Every structure is written in structure tokens, then in C-alpha cells.
């Protein structure tokens, strides 16, 4: 990937364990790389968007608190400005001609105003803190809620896209944090901008020359702050891939699910080494960033110092030439100092907002992407118990994959059929199961249930009628009972018949019986007294959940891959029973399996090869056809025949003899 000049290579100093030197930068980060390269003008133009997001969120959260926050900030800034002007009056009264006691007496009202403004300012500061304290957590929670709700509602296929997953992670984490800090910056900006305006007006009233000179002194500070913000962002973009890699290595080095292989393969030290290498390279970048930021800040400060010197020279010249009275010099100095402080606070707030605006950009991008990836709102409902599932010319490609997982598939499945999907690894069986059930939309072609195009139907109405027993079932961190009933929340089952049938057909009853608190045992090691299960036990719980769901279309994807022979036989008998036990009819069952002996009695067998449907028929028809199914079946059957032949068959008299030594008589 071509990188803009001045950016660093995202590499570590030795070949990475992950296997690639440079991870591809996520799409969203590359979009924002262009934003990072933008000039200051563009940055200023980006501000209103960030401010709008924050204010809109605040308004949506609490219009009353938002108005109150705006009000107290404006009043607080105005009181400061008022105090400044009052101080000018004090100086004018004190430094005019005449006896000192009279001058002091004359300045008393102005001194009272100054004192009053300080007291008011202190009271307003507490009001600001109180209002902000009430508003900020609400806005942060609202931002968090918006982003979580947006991500939760995207279609399933979005989670197949690595760029979207990363955008979701970054947008939620940095975006929400940026909104929270922006709220504070916005408050700072309001009060410092008012103070600046007051100082400029005061200086301008004293002498029109003073105002531009004040700006000159503070502008350098502002430039430095803007530059540092950009450096920070550039750094973030440059290290994003490395940070992703670091997180992945950290996860595989510490996660419990990887622990067994990690130890068995003695990968702890290599992983630690990889982690340290990435960390070191990130630290080097951080240090380089700190040096560059420091240099920029020092340059800014030097320029600001020169600007201040010019301002004092101009003031001196104004006094020397008699363009300004000496009595006003004190006020001018005060205005200069106030303006300088206010301008650097203003520029700092503007720049922080500018920096935050990038992260708020991620946040907005995430909301927009999530909206785009949300299934379209529709009132079209899928039929609850379709008489026919039809695929017409269906092609599907996983996001980011160069070639389709399924190509031009056309087929029809009728209500109550038990259909087996067969084929070698990667031939597309699981993917076909997901398309049949509307979980993934096809890129080309159409999937219809009784003529209703699933891409046009409300996904909730489709999903309500499907049950999926996944190859690797989810390990829900809840009780064993809930691990089954979560299959259909709220299903009425007063006498627990459905529950008993589900755990009985799947063999989950044996699992539950072996648990210390039976069905009330929490299945997660994250909780005290929680229990974990073996792979096969989790699979039984998944099957029970699928059966308990009692849906009209059931997809079982390698349901018995991790089961022992006895459990497998029981599950297939259970699934057979489940296929005939749908309320008043037969359930449409789609079975994905490699163990061909289990599907001989299926109504139809579909054979896939490299994403294409190449054969279909009953077991006998496919065996007669002598194609791929016949070949695969023969390989498995031959293995059994060969192992049977290898076992010597005992003669009747041998058998007698073999047993006899054990006899005690
Ligand atoms: N989440 C995914 N992202 C990208 N590609 C995928 C994903 N899942 C599967 N694929 C690819 O799609 C193709 C079909 O995969 P699928 O899982 O449907 O095959 P399968 O027949 O079920 O395989 P197996 O018998 O190994 O379970 C394969 O080339 C696979 O690499």
C-alpha cells in the first residue's frame, strides 16, 4: 500500500508469528488517513460536524440540561468579561491625576464590581460543574446506547466483514470517548471564546492597534496545538495495524480457549516474544511522537514569546508617542494577558475538538455503516411453515473473498423433507444452510419460501421459523436449563414436556444429570461454582436447544461431529423423531454431515462440490449413479469392511475355550 510521505512503516523487526509482515490497514482507517492529511482549513470546516453531533446528542438526552449548560457557560464568560472591564475602570480611577485618597475613594465602586464579578464567577463555576456533571454521563450513555443498538441490529452477514468488525470496535471505544471529551472541550471553548471577545473588545477600545497584535502573540500557540493534534492522529493511523496485531497476540497468549494448544505446542515464549517485539516497536513510535510533539510545542512557544514581545513594543510605542494615556496602560496589559490566555484556551479547545472530530467521524461512520447493513424495514412476513423452499440461480461470496462459496444453485425442498447436504470440506454445505434459512442473503439469484423472496421479507419473521444447530454451538454463560430454553424464550411449557423431549432426544439429559447442581448449574467458568463442559457435551446442549426451538425448518450442521457412537445414534434417532413431531405436521430438516451412514434414510441427498450442486437423489439413486457420493460412500464403507475383515472371527469351539479360563468351576 502506498503511504503518504513522512509516515512510518507499520512493521516489527522480525517475521511475525501471525505470518504476515504488514497487516492490511482496515478500510475505515484508510478513509480517515485522507482526513488526517487534510489542511487546517479543512479541519476547521470539520468542526461544525463534531459540534453538531455532540450538541444533538446532548439535546436528545436532556434539552433542559443542554440549555442550562449553554446558559451558565455564556453567563460565566460574560461575567469574566464584565470583571475585566471593571478592572480597567479601577486602573483608570487609580492612575488618574489628583490626590491618592480621592483616587482610591473614586475607584471603590469599580473595586466592588470587580469583587462581585469574582464572587459571581466562583458561584457560576460550581453551577457549571454541577450541570456538566449531570449532563456528561447522560450524553456518554446515550452515545454508547446508540452505537450498541446500531451494531446489535445489523444483519448477520456484517459480522463476516473484518473491516466492519474493527470499525465497530474502534468506533464504539474511541468514538464514545471522544464525544465525552468533546462535551468538555465545547464548554471550554464557549467560555474562553467569550473571554477572548471581551479582551479583544477592551483592547480595541483602548487602541485599535492593540487587538491584532494580541492575536499575533497567541496565534503561534494555536498553530502548535493544531500541529500536535495532527501528529497524534497520524500516529494513531500509523500504528492501527500493529495495535490490532498486538491485541490478537495478547488474546492468543492469554485466552483460556487457546491454553491447551498453547502449552502443548510450547508457544508461550514465542508468543511473549512476538508481543514484546510489537510493544517495543510501538514504544519507539510513542517516543518519536513525544519528541516531535515537543519540538513543535517549543517552536510554538518561541514564536508566541516573540509575538508577546512585539505586543509590548507596540504598547510601549503607543505610550511613548502619546497615542495612549499612561492610566490605561495597566488595563491594556491586563487585556493582553487575558486575551493571550483565552486565545490559547480557545485554540487548544478548537484543536482538541478537531482531533476528537476524527474519532467522532469513526462513530458517525459506524452508525452510518450499521444503518446501511441493517436489513430493510418491511412488513412482508415470511410464511411460518413453508410448503416449499426454492433457490433459483443462487450465488454467494463471503465479504473479502475473491471467489464465491456457492455458485448458481437451484433446488427445491418440500415441507417435511429430510434433506442431507454432503460434500468435501469447503464445498459450501454450511453456507447453503445459511442461505436456505435466510441468515445470509444471496449476491445473485433468489431464495423463496412459498414464493416470498427472503431478501424482501422481515428477517425476524424468517428467523422465528428456523432452528440452527451449529457445528460449534454457542457456549451460553447461563444455567444448563436456560442453555436449552434460550432456544425459544417464553415458549409455554407448563408440564415441561417440551423440555424433557429436547434434552432426551439430544442426550443433554445425561450431561445435566452429571452436573453438581443439575439444570441449575451455571455453564461458565467466569462465575463462582460455574462449570465448563466437554466439546461433545456442549454439542448435546446445542442440539437440545435446536429441538426445543420447535421451528418448522431445522438445520443441523454436523450435529454429531463431537459425539461418541452411542450418543450419535441417539441424536440421529432424536432428530428423526423431531422431524415428525412438528405441531400437526412434519418438520423440514436439513442435515449437514460427513458420516454418510447416518443419512442413508434421508429423503434426498444433495452433493456439493466447490460450491456447485453436482448430484441429488436418494441414497440408492446416488449409489447407482456412481458419482462423487458413491465414491465418498465407498471410501467410508471400505474402511469399515476392511477393519471388520481384519478382526479374526472366533469359531464356536474357540469361543468356548476363550471364555473357559475365566470360568471358576
Ligand atoms: N466466514 C467465512 N468467511 C470467508 N469465507 C468463508 C467463511 N466461511 C466459509 N468460507 C469459505 O466458503 C467456502 C464454503 O465454506 P463452508 O463452510 O460452507 O463449507 P463446508 O462444506 O460446510 O465445509 P466443512 O465440511 O469443512 O464444514 C469455503 O471455501 C470456505 O473457506
UniProtKB/TrEMBL annotation:
The record's listing under InterPro entries reads:
AAA+_ATPase (IPR003593), ABC1_TM_dom (IPR011527), ABC1_TM_sf (IPR036640), ABC_transporter-like_ATP-bd (IPR003439), ABC_transporter-like_CS (IPR017871), P-loop_NTPase (IPR027417), Type_1_exporter (IPR039421)
Q: Which UniProt keywords apply?
A: ATP-binding, Membrane, Nucleotide-binding, Transmembrane, Transmembrane helix
Q: Which residues form the ABC transporter domain?
A: 389-635
Q: Where is this region: Disordered?
A: 644-665
As one GO molecular function, the record gives: ABC-type transporter activity
How does the record say this protein sits in the membrane?
Multi-pass membrane protein
Task: Give every ABC transmembrane type-1 domain span.
Answer: 264-355
> Which ranges does the record mark as transmembrane?
71-95, 302-320
Q: State its location(s).
A: Cell membrane
In which broad location class does this protein mainly occur, judging by the first location in its UniProt entry?
membrane
- GO cellular component annotations, sorted alphabetically? plasma membrane
Protein name (record): ATP-binding cassette, subfamily B
| Origin species | Amycolatopsis australiensis
Q: Give the classification, highest ranks.
A: Bacteria, Bacillati, Actinomycetota, Actinomycetes, Pseudonocardiales
